Amino acid sequence: MLLLRLRTDLGADVTVEVPSPDKLLEVQAYYGARGWTSGEVPSGGYQFPYDNEVDFNWALIGARKFTNSEGEEMIMHRGHAYRRRELEAVDSRKLKLPAAIKYSRGAKNTDPPHVREKADAEFEYVSLAMFRGGKRQERYAKKSAPNAQIQPNAAD
Fold first, then answer.
1. Which InterPro entries does the entry link to (predicted)?
2. Which of 16, 33, 34, 39 meets the CB 3.0–4.6 Å disulfide criterion with 59?
């Protein structure tokens, strides 16, 4: 049996029992669709294969897609809005990187230093997710809602 620690959209800490390892992503998506998250976003954001971006299941990380007033598709995660940015491939003597899609936002004074990334000039940003290279993984694709009724086991 696995235990998954989650934080609800209202800040309560909850521990959920996961019946088996093969159900972990299903449980994460179930609660993530409600805005519940587990853990912290890693420095540089989550890393996923490029081909997963088109139908990525944002509920896996407790996020959701929305359209802003200018008609841009954005991602909402823990009260922050992240913008989609397309990064061109880099091919130089020092660095070779394939094209990427990154979801990021401008850094705020309250963001810890380890999550801030430098951009041009003095601008800093925070990344939520990067889709680059790698082989597509169906486990990250958006599926229909799970049929199982999954209930929290106990609060921490």
1. ssDNA-bd_DdrB-like (IPR024305)
2. 33
Please name the residues in contact with 3: beta carbons below 8 A apart, sequence gap of 6 or more.
15, 16, 17, 18, 153
Q: pLDDT digit string (tens) for 45-63?
A: 999 999 999 999 999 999 9
Task: Give the C-alpha separation, 23 to 19, whole Å.
Answer: 7
Question: Which two structure tokens, joined as six digits, stand for 155?
Answer: 């609060």
Query: Where does residue 60 rank: exposed (0-12), middle (13-18), buried (19+ CB within 10 A)?
Result: buried
Backbone angles phi, psi at 50, to 5 degrees: -55, -45
Cα 139 to the center of its chain, rounded Å: 14
pLDDT single digits (tens) 103-126: 999 999 888 888 888 877 778 999
Assessment of whether the complete model's pTM goes beyond 0.70? yes
Instruction: Find out whether 24 and 6 touch, Cβ atoms under 8 Å.
Output: no
**Position 95, amino acid:** L
